[in-house]
Amino acid sequence: MYGHPIGVNYKGESAFKTKLGAVLTMLTYAAVLTYSLVKFNRLVHRDRPEITRTEEIIRLGDATNRFNFEEYNFWFTFGFS
Q: Rounded to whole angstroms, how far apart are CA atoms 15 and 25?
C-alpha cells in the first residue's frame, strides 16, 4: 500500500547527463575540497583562531536584574554557589 517508488525517466534513463552538469559537479567537488583543506590547514597550524567569549556578572539576590540566556544563544552554562 505504502512505499511505492515514483521515478522520473527521460528517454528511458533515470539520469540525464550533460557536459554542463559534469562541469558544475566538478566545480562543486573542487569548492568543497578546497574549503575543507583550508579549514584543516588552519586547524593544524592554529592559524587565526576564533574565540568568542561573553561575560556577564549579575547579582543573584536582585530579582529585577535577570540574565536571559536565550538572548546570547547559550549552548552550555554552569555556575558555582
A: 14
Phi/psi class of residue 69: alpha, beta or left (left: φ > 0; alpha: ψ in -120 to 50)?
alpha
Own/partner contacts of 39-45, CB < 8 Å, gap of 24 or more, are none
pLDDT of residue 2: 77
pLDDT tens digit string along 13-24?
878 888 999 999
> For residue 77, what are the contacts with CB-CB under 8 A and spacing of at least 6?
69
pTM for this prediction: 0.48
Instruction: Enter the C-alpha cell of residue 45.
Output: 597550524
Distance CA 50, CA 39 (A): 12
- CA separation for the pair 36, 43 (Å, rounded): 10
